[in-house]
Design a protein that fits this description.
Blueprint: H1 30-41, H2 47-57, H3 61-73, H4 83-104, H5 107-119, H6 127-136, H7 162-171, H8 174-190, H9 194-201, H10 210-231
Length: 248
C-alpha cells in the first residue's frame, strides 16, 4: 500500500512503525518541467519559457501546476516573449494555495509570515528581529499575537521559496504593509542596521512623520557623500602635467 502525505504530516502508527518505508520526493528537474509545460501549452513552448517556469517554481510540482494553470487562463502561448508575463503573474498564481494552507495554521503563523515577508530574506539581523516584529503585530481581533518557543535560536527564519514570500506580501493591505515597514524601520534603527532603514521608510508612504523625514534626509546625505567620494579621481604624490604650475 502506498500513502502520500506532506512532510511532517505522517500521523498515527505510520510515523514510527518499523514496516513503513519513507521515500522523500526530490524537486522536478528542468527537463521534467519542460515536459509538463509542453503537455499543457503545446509542443511549441519555447525553451526560455520552460526554463522560466522551472526557475520560478523551483521544481515544486504544486507551483508548476499553479503556474501552468494561470498561464493557460491568461492565454500565454509559451513563446519566449511570454516569460515576462509569466513572472508577473507568478505570485498571484500560487497565492491561493499558499495562503489557504497558511490560514489553516492559525493567526499567529499568519502574523509571523507577514512579518518575515516585510523584513525580506537574507536579513543579517536574523530571528530575534523577526520575533520582535512578530510580537508587536496585532491580530485581526485586536489582541497581540501570542509568543511561542524561545526566539533566540541560532537558525534565522526564511521562506522555503521566494514565491511564498511574494504571495504573503501581496496579500497584505496597503495600509497594513506601510505600517509594518514603519515598524521594521524602527526596529532596524534600534538594532544599528541603519543602512537598511531607508529602504523600508520609502515603502511607508507620506504621513507627516518627523522621524521618517529625519532618517530619509540622513540617508540621502550619506548616499550623496558616498557618491562624491566614488567620483573623486584617485591622486598620487606627484601632480599631473596638466596641474603642474610650471608646465607651459
Amino acid at each position: 500500500m502506498r500513502v502520500t502525505r506532506r512532510a511532517g504530516n505522517l500521523a498515527g502508527w505510520a510515523a514510527d512503525h518499523s514496516s513503513v518505508q519513507r521515500v522523500g520526493l526530490s524537486a522536478l528537474s528542468a527537463a521534467s518541467v519542460a515536459a509538463l509545460v509542453r503537455t499543457e501549452l503545446g509542443s511549441a513552448a519555447s525553451a526560455e519559457f520552460c526554463s522560466g517556469c522551472w526557475e520560478l517554481a523551483g521544481g515544486n510540482p504544486l507551483f508548476v501546476r499553479e503556474l501552468l494553470a494561470a498561464a493557460h487562463n491568461e492565454g500565454l502561448s509559451g513563446a519566449k516573449e511570454s516569460v515576462t508575463e509569466l513572472r508577473a503573474l507568478a505570485s498571484s498564481a500560487v497565492g491561493p494555495s499558499v495562503l489557504g494552507r497558511l490560514a489553516r495554521l492559525g493567526p499567529d503563523a499568519v502574523a509571523l509570515t507577514q512579518a518575515l515577508a516585510v523584513l525580506g530574506s537574507q536579513t543579517e539581523v536574523g530571528l530575534p528581529l523577526s520575533w520582535r516584529l512578530w510580537s508587536s503585530c496585532r491580530r485581526a481581533d485586536g489582541r497581540p499575537a501570542r509568543g511561542g518557543s524561545d526566539p533566540r535560536v541560532a537558525r534565522p527564519l526564511d521562506f522555503f521559496h521566494p514565491l511564498i514570500a511574494e504571495s504573503v506580501y501581496a496579500d497584505l493591505a496597503l495600509g497594513a504593509r506601510r505600517l509594518a515597514h514603519r515598524r521594521v524601520a524602527a526596529i532596524l534603527d534600534r538594532a544599528g542596521a541603519a543602512d537598511r532603514v531607508a529602504a523600508h521608510l520609502l515603502a511607508t508612504g507620506p504621513a507627516g512623520d518627523a522621524w521618517v523625514a529625519e532618517r530619509l534626509s540622513a540617508a540621502a546625505d550619506t548616499a550623496w557623500s558616498a557618491a562624491r567620494l566614488k567620483s573623486r579621481p584617485a591622486t598620487s604624490g606627484a601632480p599631473s602635467p596638466s596641474c603642474d604650475p610650471g608646465a607651459a
